[in-house]
Amino acid sequence: MASRKTHIQAHTGTFLRQGSLYDLGKIKAPLLRDYYQASCGIDGFLVSRGKVRLSLARIFIIKREGKMKIKKWIILAGILGIILIVEFFSIGQARGDSDVKEIWSYKTDTTFSISVSEEGNLAFSEGTKKAGFMRIYNRKDNSLKSWKCSSTQRVVVSGNYVFAAYNSNISSLLQIKPSKQLWAKRVDSLNPSSLDYSNEAKCGVAGNIPVDSKGNLAASTIWIFDQSGDITWQKELNVFLTCAIINQKGYVVAAGEKFGPWDENFNCTKGENAVYVFDPSGKVLAHVQFASPPIDVGIDKYAERIAVGTDDGGMVFLNRNGKILWEKDDIGGYIAVDKESERIATTKSVYLVLLNQKGKVLWESQQEVAGGIEGLVVSPNGKFVGISTFDSAVIILDALNGKVLYQTKPGKKVSRISLSNSYAGVAIEGEIKLLSLK
Question: What's the predicted TM-score (pTM) here?
């Protein structure tokens, strides 16, 4: 990518996962003949130090071919004269198969996180101009729980529980029926970038994204909370966390990349690109290093198989002891697996690919996903695949054959999707929707 001379002015702003953006000061730059679409892959801050420097966010870039058109733009960041910009599209309208039915919709402003249960209970965090809110609704569109907070982060539904993070350093567990908050715990050093919960294991994992006094990325820590809110164990890792998950048996997988000051090639100089596997007691079962940063992981319910997607678009399939079972160079990046790890959804450039646990390609979408695939989910039973795209669309497919069951057009706001076996929760263009899957 050629370097470009530009003049940029920026003030501190905040990124949220999957490309959402708020509180960004004025940035000015000329439009470019070639343009790019960009998204932030982890929580972070955009800071200006003479030159615009991305201090706490991973940027994914997709080159868009063709002539420049007059549209509305938001400039996300500039690094050494390269401008990363994202396009505002027209409002999207849903279209798809009759097997996917809308049950209800809820008007909102900005949705940061969304999660749906097998019973159709939907939890989401939203931001308005005045405040943030965490909300839980049931299948009948009845509000079960709602509370106001200064900042919202993540929510995860598992069984009858919602694990939530808000106000930068508070983690909380809520019971859905009867609806009540079981506990809320403040950990000053915990600003969750990753959050996951297992109803079966009765515990959750949260991981932070720290910055040192000089504004450099620092080593992350993960915390394991039990159902009473006690911290059962915590580990400082030799990585800057990209994701952490927990399975039904209480096994934890954490992935991350290098941190510390940049060298002359803008590579971090401390730590490692690695994946850790922990048993329920916190014992390290595997510690595997990678040349390219691992950005996404998936684990089956028995913790026998672990899929790792890497930043260079590849993937590795491991057992719980870190032995490599197979790997792909041209398939990977974002990944999602079902509970049995029978089906693995991933990407090949801007195409969706479904693999089995032996690495065989079951099908590959022949239709390019406009804007590129940004996030993936698979229903626990492996029957449905959900996609969120860089241009704010949502797609639901039949995992058996790749048939599109539901799709929205590109939009202005970052999209979100969550799948259970029977329901989908989606956030598109200022609306939360609960969909039934048949």
Answer: 0.78
What contacts 67, CB < 8 A, 6 or more positions away? none
Q: Are 417 and 384 in contact (CB under 8 A)?
A: no
Q: Which domain holds residue 72?
A: 13-87
Structural domains of the chain, count: 2
DSSP-derived 3-state class of residue 17: helix
In a domain, residue 1? The reply is no
Domain boundary among 38, 65, 87: 87
Instruction: Say which residues have a Cβ less than 8 Å from residue 151's Cβ, sequence separation at least 6.
Output: 127, 132, 166, 167, 168
Return contacts of 56-59, CB within 8 angstroms, 24+ apart.
56/15, 56/209, 56/211, 56/217, 57/15, 58/242, 58/257, 58/293, 58/295, 58/311, 59/84
Q: Residue 423 in contact with residue 118, Cβ under 8 Å?
A: yes
Q: Which helix (H) or strand (E) holds 364?
A: strand 361-364
In a domain, 340, yes or no: yes
Residues 300 and 416 in one domain: yes
Which residues share a beta bridge with 184? 172
| Contact indicator for 225, 203 with CB cutoff of 8 Å | yes
Mean pLDDT by 10 residues, the chain (438 residues): 28 30 32 30 28 33 31 33 31 51 90 92 88 90 86 88 89 92 86 87 94 92 96 97 95 97 92 98 98 95 94 96 96 89 86 93 81 84 90 89 89 85 91 92
Alpha-carbon distances of 363 from 30, 99, 309, 343, 366, rounded to whole Å: 42, 21, 18, 11, 9
Is 40 a domain residue? yes
- What is the rounded distance in angstroms from the CA atom of residue 56 to the CA atom of residue 48? 12
